[in-house]
Amino acid sequence: MNLRRHATVPESRTQRSLHLGRLAGELLAGAVATGAGQLARCQLPSWAGVMLTPGNAQRLTERLAQMRGAVMKVGQLMSMDGHGILPAPFADLLAKLRDQAYAMPATQLAEVLEREYGPEWHRRFRRFSFEPIAAASIGQVHRAETHAGEALALKVQYPGVRASIDSDVANLALLLRMPGLTPPGVDADEVLAQVRLQLHAETDYLAEAHLATAYLARLGEDPDLFVPRVHAAHSSAHILAMDFAPGVPIGALMQGSVPQAQRDRVASVLCRLAVKEFFGMRLVQTDPNFGNYLFDAPSGRMGLLDFGAAQEVSTERVAQLRELGRALRQANRSRTHQAARASGLVHAGDTPAQQGAVVDLLLAVGEPLRTRGPYDFGASGLVKAVFEQGQAQFFESGYGQPPPADLLLLQRKFVGTFMLCARLGARLDLNEVFGAELDELA
Predict the structure, then answer these.
(1) 437 Cβ contact partners less than 8 Å away, ≥ 6 residues apart
(2) What is the predicted pLDDT for the residue at 1?
(3) pLDDT-derived band of residue 82, with 50, 70 and 90 as boundaries?
(4) Residue 166 clears pLDDT 50, i.e. is over it
(5) Which helix (H) or strand (E) element contains residue 408?
């Protein structure tokens, strides 16, 4: 992760609105230039074709990385889910938002620490590293050591991020009304309303501390997983102090030199965790960002981070998605359609074409559940097939009503875990992983 770039976080609404205004101008200028080039070659341009270009993706990525906060979080969500609806170069460039956030300059960081801990903040630690070990949309993480010798990871929230969520989302709604940026049929305002609520939850570090503690208690002792403890004495509304978790982000395991067996084991642990969270713990960490999983080679354990997006799961939702899983395992189209309707993945108001397209996508994603023995994610063409189906829906039938907010987050978890398996090139038996959870007698 490259954290050498530093930029002051724009705090005021005016500053952040100006950034988004400049972004809109940059995207429009890029679209006009692309369209003019196509016309010169006697090609008929489309708004989607001239807006969703690598050049505009680069402009969008750079601007969001500087702004951070709500707008960057939306970009990260697009990067995780965008391979279903966005052109591959656009989605790939947006994916860099997971790694390319700017860090706060030391002066701004010191102001935040003094505001939270007081003017003598440095006396509470034996050591404090001003260079962050991670930087994301809402905050950046610093390593510290207490006078008692405890190694801590301090997640420091960017100043002004929580207060700017509503205005950022409102400005994003205006930006997404630009032709070509939103799929046909999608109500961007409704989607952003769900995002706004989730961002308010994720910037509440006191609530996250509670969720992290509850998650640790429900997970219990696990030989493969490690959850850092919260240190309340060094936590505040805008700083979350936890045990320092050793290891490297699992993105480092996607290199070809990593043995297949190790990649298979990591993917298996992540899939088993998703099953345990949903069916057993009923508390799911819904942000499967690559940086939220650390692999510690010496112990062979996975460290789990970032519980701001953790959510409780109702008994009713478990039953609905268990039924959907059974239908997908059978490749039963009618049963899949009924389960999708019951859960809210499709709605009565969606057109038959929209409903059919969603069922097609679900049946495609269910392919690993129908495979006997290990499924080879590395050799599979499933990601490409799902992408092409999503593209067809984007340009043809469009998308219907979005699913309920809780289901949107759960969908993000399971799709994200699937994508992690694909990026790892893992081979694993998902029927064995899900086990009795999808058995008809369960």
Answers:
(1) 275, 279, 322, 325
(2) 43
(3) very low
(4) yes
(5) helix 405-424
Determine the 3-state secondary structure of 179 from DSSP.
Answer: coil
pLDDT tens, position by position, 107-147: 999 999 999 999 999 999 999 999 999 877 788 899 999 99
**Cα gap 387→406, rounded to integer Å:** 24
Pairwise CA distance, residues 7 & 88, whole Å: 29
pLDDT of residue 84: 42
- Tell which residue, 309, 291, 295, 296, has the closest CA to residue 141: 291
Contact 94, 73 (CB under 8 A): no
- DSSP letters along 71-133, please? HHHHHHHHHHHGGGTS-HHHHHHHHGGGT-PPBPPHHHHHHHHHHHH-TTGGGGEEEE-SS-S
Distance (Å, whole) CA 214 – CA 314: 16
DSSP class of residue 373 equals S
pLDDT digits 0-9 by tens, 30-48: 444 444 444 444 544 344 4
Q: In angstroms, rounded to a whole number, what is the distance separating the alpha carbons of residues 163 and 398?
A: 34
User: And the tokens for 85?
Assistant: 């609806």
The domain limits of the chain are 13-103+161-201, 248-442
Distance CA 303, CA 348 (A): 42
Q: What is the pLDDT of residue 354?
A: 86
Burial class (CB in 10 A: 0-12, 13-18, 19+), 248: middle
- Interior CA angle at 142 toward 205 and 64, to 5°? 70
In the predicted model, is pLDDT for residue 161 greater than 60? yes
Q: What sign does the dihedral 231-236-237-243 (CA atoms) show?
A: negative
Quickly tell me which residue has 């790939």 as its tokens.
92
Q: So what's the pLDDT on residue 399?
A: 63
Q: Which of 431, 202, 187 is nearest to 308 (CA)?
A: 202
CA distance 385 to 390: 9
**Whole-number Å distance between alpha carbons of 215 and 209:** 10
The beta-strand segments (E) located in 198-270 are: 225-226, 239-243, 248-249
Task: Supply the mean pLDDT for the chain.
Answer: 79
The 10s digit of each residue's pLDDT in 325-336 is: 999 999 999 999
